[in-house]
């Protein structure tokens, strides 16, 4: 099944992708709006294709809500001066494979990704992300955050790909992984493929455990060990919720997040 959406005027919509295997979105020239996309129970393979025409703008939030394993493929094309700010949040106890490819096809296109994942025990979270620059004055930003519990398997391959002729393009990426459990696997591969001299590009990554002094302080304030860990986890995941424009929905997901990381334990 295929769901098709076309926006020819300002928009604000929540879409649920369940049994549908594919979503096609067209945002017409100059249109501005926000989309909340929920990946619901249903098909284990989901595909999304979004095209932003010249001067279009979209605040896109993708939320993984499926409790069974899923492979999610997302392709986004941004044309002249189009802008997309994307958030992605995955806290489910289910294996998840993400393949995201963003193409900045025309001059001035701008893409900014902020992702957060909670790697539950014994589960795989594998991600492959590429931002491809095909025109000058394009910008691609990637900020990825993950919290890993016991035996979680996390992988992030993030690529900024700037082709020849894309003068004054910018590609920047950061991946931060907080490890809270034992026997986890964390593999982060930041790649910069650059075939042009006049560009700006950078990558950074950190993988590490919580600060013991912070944990000691939180425990001294009466929090359990799990609550303390949860509070530190929130610092990694909470910023993603800023991509949600609906304040009631944002509040609801924050409560879900706090519950999943253990803040409400023993209350």
From TrEMBL:
Residues 25-234 form the SUF system FeS cluster assembly SufBD core domain. InterPro entries: Fe-S_cluster_assembly_SufBD, SUF_FeS_clus_asmbl_SufBD_core, SUF_FeS_clus_asmbl_SufBD_sf. GO terms for biological process: iron-sulfur cluster assembly. This is Fe-S cluster assembly protein SufD.
């Amino acid at each position: 099944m295929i769901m098709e959406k076309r926006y020819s005027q300002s928009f604000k919509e929540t879409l649920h992708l369940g049994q549908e295997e594919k979503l096609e979105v067209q945002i017409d020239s100059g249109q501005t709006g926000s989309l909340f996309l929920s990946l619901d129970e249903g098909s284990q393979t989901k595909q999304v294709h979004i095209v932003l025409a010249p001067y279009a703008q979209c605040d896109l939030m993708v939320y993984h809500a499926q409790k069974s394993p899923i492979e999610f493929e997302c392709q986004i094309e941004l044309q002249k001066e189009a802008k997309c700010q994307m958030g992605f949040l995955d806290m489910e106890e289910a294996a998840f494979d993400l393949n995201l490819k963003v193409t900045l096809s025309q001059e001035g296109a701008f893409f900014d990704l902020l992702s957060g994942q909670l790697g539950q025990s014994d589960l795989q979270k594998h991600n492959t992300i590429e931002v491809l620059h095909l025109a000058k004055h394009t910008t691609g930003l990637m900020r990825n955050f993950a919290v890993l519990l016991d035996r979680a398997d996390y992988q992030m391959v993030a690529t900024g790909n700037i082709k020849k002729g894309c003068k004054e393009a910018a590609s920047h990426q950061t991946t931060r992984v907080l490890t809270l459990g034992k026997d986890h696997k964390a593999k982060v591969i930041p790649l910069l493929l650059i075939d042009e001299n006049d560009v700006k590009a950078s990558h950074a990554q950190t993988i590490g455990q919580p600060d013991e002094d912070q944990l000691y302080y939180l425990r001294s304030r009466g929090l359990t060990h799990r609550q303390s860990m949860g509070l530190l986890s929130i610092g990694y995941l909470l910023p993603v919720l800023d991509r949600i424009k609906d304040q009631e929905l944002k509040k609801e997901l924050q409560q879900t997040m706090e519950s999943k990381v253990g803040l409400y334990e023993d209350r």
